[in-house]
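Pasting as-is:
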Amino acid sequence: MQVIAIFGPTGIGKTDVAVALAHLLRAEGEDPVAVSADALQVYRGLEVLTGVASAAQQQALEHRLIGFLSVSESFSAGRFAQLAHAEIDGLLSEGRRPIVIGGTGLYLRAALSELDLRPPPEPGARERRVEQLRAQGPEALHAELSMMASWAAADIDPRDGQRLVRALELLDSGRLQPRASASQLWSTEMRRPTVLVGLTMPRELLYERIEARVDAMLAAGAREEVLAAQAAGAGGTARKALGFQELLEGDVEAMKQHTRNYAKRQLTWMRKLAGAQLIDVGHRHPSEVAAEVAGLLEPQSARRAERPKLPPA
């Protein structure tokens, strides 16, 4: 059975398409389950801010790997890969169809293929840099990185202390390498047979959706989530959630701009994915898009033939 992977920028409607696709697959006798491939939807208490599937969507399609981690805990792509592989393999062994839904490129790759992760820092390296961060602030670390590896500093927000510490750790040990190209960040070697679908739409329409999405998040309590997470001791990983810092500062327009910029990078990266089937979803109903995705799967007769046979009554 093929895994279905649906990737697309924030606000494009990935979950709606997945839910509509699940209805089609159930009509053919399948039992699909969604597996989230999002770096921040793992956090409990940030469901509105990170766009976790609504209660109605989760009732229509079971979702895995969402809301299971405290905001105070750190998380990594390596740990996620282990969890995602176990979920996908378990579902396939049960004859259930995994629908991987991703908005984070690295986590999508982590779910579908094997990661070539960078080595851990040398003993004591992190502690030294963390102490420097505490004493001097992230701007000082960013200035140091700019002098020694400007190409690396250009890709890191001067306020992002966690990423600055990691970059300087690698620099200290001689293992800091230039960022790979988008094609190198993706592998066509999937762990399981996979149909990869990339959802696109005209940028102007996507930006309109993002504006409406942010407004809806605020109305649903996104800022209250952020304040509660802050009070609960949100760690550096949870604070990377899109809009977290902006809502702490009460700057909604900055959140919208940051989200638009992020969506633009997601679209650019997605269009370079080898093997991806790109589908324009602009002004189309999710059910229409879902039907197109279903058409990319192996023939229905083959799907039926591979289903586990039930024992005789």
